[in-house]
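dumping these here so i dont lose them again. two proteins, back to back, each one seq then structure tokens. dont judge the mess
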Amino acid sequence: MREWIDAQTGRTVRQLTENPEGSSVGYFRVPRRLPDGRILARRHGEQRALIAIDINTGATQAFDFLPWLPMGLRETDGRLWYQILGENKICAVDLPDGTPQLIGELPGSEPHNGTCITCDGSTVVCSFFEVDQSQEYPLPTTLDPAIFWQWTARPRHGRLQAYDLTTGASNTVVELDGLLPIHADVSPTDPTLIKFAHDDYDAFCQRIWTVRTDGSNLTKIRPQQRGELVTHEFWWPDGQYIGYKYQDRRHDATIHDLPWAEYSPIPTQFGLANLDGEECYLSHPINHYHTHLNVSPDGKRLSGEGTDGDNVVHAAAFSMDSTRIDFVPHATVHTPYVPFKANQVNASFSGDGEWIIFNDTIDEVKQVCAVKVEV
């Protein structure tokens, strides 16, 4: 296991993987902690596999049930649900030593891609998107506002479909025309509750919603006025709150020419809303924009991934009793930053909250790294 002193922060960084073809932890919302303290990551290339990593020793254990699509991990007991790639079969395995078992199938002969599964393993949520993928609508990664607004106006249609694996019943949870229901993410504690977002411009739409798996109780989370930017929502560990970043751009004259949140002149704040949709916490402005914020399992620490021009992983102590959040630099990120797409840091905490786990580019290859939290 390689270690070095970060020249920018003075802290010791550990490189946990050395796969020549790269390794990475998944998207920042994705659970990745096993009850024994190890974290889950993917090993890429010909030797691709899901791996468990011991943060203290760097030792890895590979789980070879690919090709697969991960759907959910219950961190309390290590139960992992996944879909066999190209098939409608849903399997479950109790990590680290269990044997994969088929628990159900999605209906129809055409393969569906399951997006997530409820915390009791009973209901699969699938996303169905119809999007104009023509070259007329490129991703807005060039800081050209015309391309940005053209992309947000692209034709699209989408829905979330729920499949009950025990009864075989299915229903449309939500359907949108001209928008997509993105970032579908089930509650970590309530097997009937789904969080999702609208994919319109974050300051000109109602970003965060919750809905029941039967399609009932559609709820706005942190209702927005036009110009209030809410983005990068995530579940709080107890499932009672939803966290997000906030910028008040209601009177910002640059919003049309500089719509990207990471380049906005307006300071970023961290907010929490309860399941009734009411904002119950809003911080003072934080030190700068962070691509994603994340929280430790005990809710007492936040991580931040930095941004263009400040590519540094940060950590901060957090309490709902204080609106001040002091993010402290911990480790330099060497992956190039791309506007709108960021740099895939995907930082989160270890189970005990003592380490930040993140992706970084080492010798031109993506690897999993860790840095001890000191705040």
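---- next one ----
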Amino acid sequence: MDEKLKSAYFYTELMVTAGPRKNFNEDANEGDYDLGEDVAGCFVKKENAFFWLLDGTSDSPILKDSEGKELFSSRLLAQELGCHIQDSIWSHSLDSFDSRAILESAFTSIRENWEKRFKELPQKEKELISQKITEKTRIIVSTTVILGRLTIDGTLDVSYIGDSVMVAHPDCTFPEEKGRFFMVVETGETEEVIFKHNPFEDTRCHTESHEAIENVIVASDGINKNTIAWLKVRKPDFRNADFRKTIAAIRQGTCDDKAICVIQILTDD
């Protein structure tokens, strides 16, 4: 191993805040006042730092049971995908990490889990959910996804779907994508409830690899463009008090969840 790498280590930080609900399904009194649909995380496994960020669609429908418990929503879609991503990383060897394959597997797994959850509901709850879906024809929930790995020697491998943002230094750009992962809940000809998701190739998943990367920042689109532009032109150091103060002082001005995940490679020098 290079002598410099022996003293290298990861610094990670995660910042998340919820924004106000954009709208309500029917009555404001029954609305959900907190979004909580951004999901982000990271962990270090040996000489690898893994990170993920999902931004569930905040104004999509929420299917609840008779007691008001949330059963199917963009928020749950993002949360469950985040959990599946973590489980997949822990259960596979580091040599076999494949962000694209993990995402494709995750989508299938979530659909199967939702089917199972519905089948295990009491008959009364099944009928309630079926009625709600029939009234709307279908329910569509969705999320963006970023999943990547940064190694201690600066190799970045990442797959992403949708308009969440990535910044890396030294400067490398990532094309903006408009895809999303959609889960569709609808009733069939015999009124049975069916769960479907868009084919993986239709999510517009983009995969990239870069070398000599020193830090990566991923953010949901609740972080405004001025903040992202500032992060692109100035090498970030979240340990620096002045840098953190500047970030905190920028008014985001978006009625949305906000999430930033940063991973820096530092040395003891």
